[in-house]
Design brief:
Blueprint (H helix, E strand, L loop, with lengths): L3 E7 L7 H12 L3 E7 L5 H9 L5 E4 L13 E2 L1 H6 L4 E5 L2 E5 L2 H9 L10 E5 L3 H12 L4 E5 L3 H6 L12 E2 L1 H6 L6 E4 L24 E4 L8 H8 L3 E3 L2 H16 L8 H11 L1
Parallel strand pairs: 1-2, 1-3, 4-6, 7-8, 7-10, 8-9, 10-11, 11-12
Antiparallel strand pairs: 3-5, 5-6
Helix pairs in contact: 1-9, 4-5, 4-9
Bound molecules: 2'-monophosphoadenosine-5'-diphosphate (ATR).
């Protein structure tokens, strides 16, 4: 049987949890394979990538800082990855390299484990960086109609409007407006790095004004329970932890590479344990 050869490129990649996650998926799917780490220094990126693409590898993930830099090396892009302008998953199909972005869709799959339905929900996304681009695109393609964006730099949030679908209704807010209008939202998604360890005491926005029964989601997963999530919990909100996104973006990537569906099941608890011990 052919061995599925997978891996991850980035700088740094040493502490990545992806080898563990994909090993679990391969075991579950009964696939024999490997998922190796490929740390690449920025000054040798071009030659290392050229060699990797020729190496017989079947697919790989791309992480910071190469999600844009990989694009010219690929033969085709999935239309959403092209729109987002970033690729985190590459697959070799019939001799061609195709790029996808599973970050945003993975995030939405993860979120949908805790939220009921979608179209009428009012969503507020905090932040407008690379992570926010993928998440916003996935939300609008999954049919979320009302997705407002608040960012410290308002002009950066406005750039995300290019990712809208015709039926999307998005208002751009300043941080202050977001704070004042918080009570309007059913779902609040924090996409910036504020609150990430070692600055775990920081919180982008105060939640004083939160709607009853709101869902507050944070893509930061170190610490697992950020200040933002702790304060949301204290107010009775449903909280959604960032580490679930790691699993669901990987699940979608694994589907692209292997054509097989795998389930998350107990992996969420196991990942939480690993992150807590780390
Ligand atoms: P990523 O690719 O991880 O999303 P990024 O592209 O650098 O990272 O984007 C970072 C996001 O976090 C931006 O929305 C940024 O706001 P600005 O566009 O105003 O820079 C936001 N951000 C980071 N640090 C912040 C802080 N201390 N306060 C408010 N917003 C912050």
């Amino acid at each position: 049987m052919k061995i599925l050869k997978l891996g991850l490129i980035g700088h740094p990649v040493e502490h990545s949890l992806s080898p563990w996650i994909h090993t679990q998926f391969m075991e579950q799917a009964g696939i024999e394979g490997e998922y190796k780490l490929y740390p690449i220094e920025p000054d040798v990126f071009d030659e290392k990538i050229a060699a990797l693409l020729q190496s017989g590898i079947d697919g790989f993930n791309i992480t910071v800082p190469y999600k844009q830099r990989i694009i010219p090396f690929l033969d085709e892009l999935d239309p959403d990855a092209a729109k987002i302008g970033a690729v985190n998953t590459a697959v070799r199909k019939n001799g061609k390299w195709i790029g996808y972005n599973t970050d945003g869709s993975g995030y939405v799959r993860a979120l949908e484990q805790v939220i009921p339905s979608q179209e009428s929900l009012h969503v507020l996304m905090l932040g407008a960086g690379g992570a926010a681009r993928g998440i916003y695109r996935a939300l609008v393609t999954e049919g979320y109609r009302y997705v407002d964006i608040a960012n410290r730099t308002v002009s950066k949030a406005e750039q995300l409007l290019q990712l809208q679908e015709p039926e999307t209704i998005t208002e751009i807010l300043s941080s202050e407006e977001a704070q004042n209008r918080l009570a309007e939202y059913d779902v609040i998604i924090h996409t910036t790095s504020v609150g990430m360890s070692p600055k775990a005491e920081e919180q982008l926005i105060a939640l004083a004004n939160l709607k009853a029964q709101a869902v507050v989601s944070d893509i930061v997963y170190k610490p697992i329970e950020t200040m933002l999530l702790r304060s949301a919990k204290l107010q009775g909100a449903t909280i959604h932890h960032g580490h679930s996104m790691l699993l669901y973006q990987a699940q979608y990537a694994f589907e692209i590479w292997s054509g097989q569906q795998v389930i998350i099941g107990d992996l969420l608890n196991q990942l939480e344990q690993r992150l807590t011990e780390a």
